[in-house]
Amino acid sequence: MTTLKNKIVWITGASSGIGEALAYEFAREGAKLVLSARRESELKRVANATGLSEKDVLVLPMDMLEFELFPEKVQIVLAHFGQIDVIVQNAGITQRSYVKDTQFQVYRDIMELDFFSTVAFTQAVLPSMTKRKTGHFVVISSVAGKIGVPLRSGYCAAKHALIAFFDSLRAEVSPEHIYVTTICPGYINTPISLSALDAEGNQHGKMDDNQAKGMPAHTFAKKAIKAIKNNKKEVYIGGTYEIFGVYLKRFLPSLVYRMVEKK
């Protein structure tokens, strides 16, 4: 995909953080946007900030746990724009709790939002892309999907599952000229840790030091857009330390395990 100009790009989790930053960057590239998240007021704020005309940006509030409404949402987008070129699967939640303390329902909730909702949404959108024999799925996984770390066992598991699922999808839809780009962020400066689930499923409510010192979201968005335009299959975007860890694990996994245990 050499250009994003006039492409219809649908972003979930678009009301803040990575999703918001991607919305601005796609708009700069000349794309037309569908912005989805639960908070309509925040989506409208982002839509206005993109600078796009009203006809070129559709605010579509959506709860990613209401799987049964996904087909209806897809039809709304198709009625408005006529097609869907790029889907950015960004909605999700993280975690801050030890396995020994975590209520089992917390794991179910994380997997429902971070994995199963993405699968259901993919199945709802896929028929419109296969019919046109073109399209691009962009899934925001995580470096945590490559390296398991303390306090994030459910989050790591869900992000790991996303990588495997979209590896399979990529192989299946390649003959249809449909692309899949899996993006694994490291520490990005977003408010994601504030809404992380604790052991009882309540909000963590704290900004992690590593998150606060992470790559600015707008810098991440620029790098992500470059990967999407180049049809990259899997990319890692973040600080030197966490990205180096991904490559180090390929060749010296035991060393990485020891580093994580000490950290």
What does this structure look like?
This protein has 263 residues and is of the alpha/beta class. It has one domain (8-262): Rossmann fold, CATH 3.40.50.720. It has 9 helices and 9 strands. It has a 7-stranded parallel beta sheet, with helices on both faces. A two-stranded parallel ribbon has the order 7-8. Helix 1 (17-28) links the parallel strand 1 (8-12) and strand 2. Helix 1 runs parallel beside helix 2 and helix 4 (104-132) runs parallel beside helix 5. It is globular, with a radius of gyration of 18 Å. The mean pLDDT is 95.
List its salient traits:
single chain, alpha/beta, seven-stranded parallel β-sheet
User: What topology, given as strand order, has the largest sheet?
Assistant: 3-2-1-4-5-6-9
Main β sheet profile: 7 strands, parallel
CATH architecture: 3-Layer(aba) Sandwich
Which fold name is given in CATH as the topology?
Rossmann fold
The SS-based structural class is: alpha/beta
Helix amount = 40-55%
Query: What is the string of helix and strand elements?
Result: EHEHEHEHEHEEHEHEHH
Q: What is the approximate shape?
A: globular
Rg for CA atoms: 18 Å
Which residues sit in consecutive blocks of at least 5 with pLDDT less than 50? none
Number of strands: 9
Distance between the termini: 40 Å
DSSP strand content: 5-15%
Number of domains: 1
What oligomeric assembly is this protein in?
Answer: single chain
Helix run count: 9
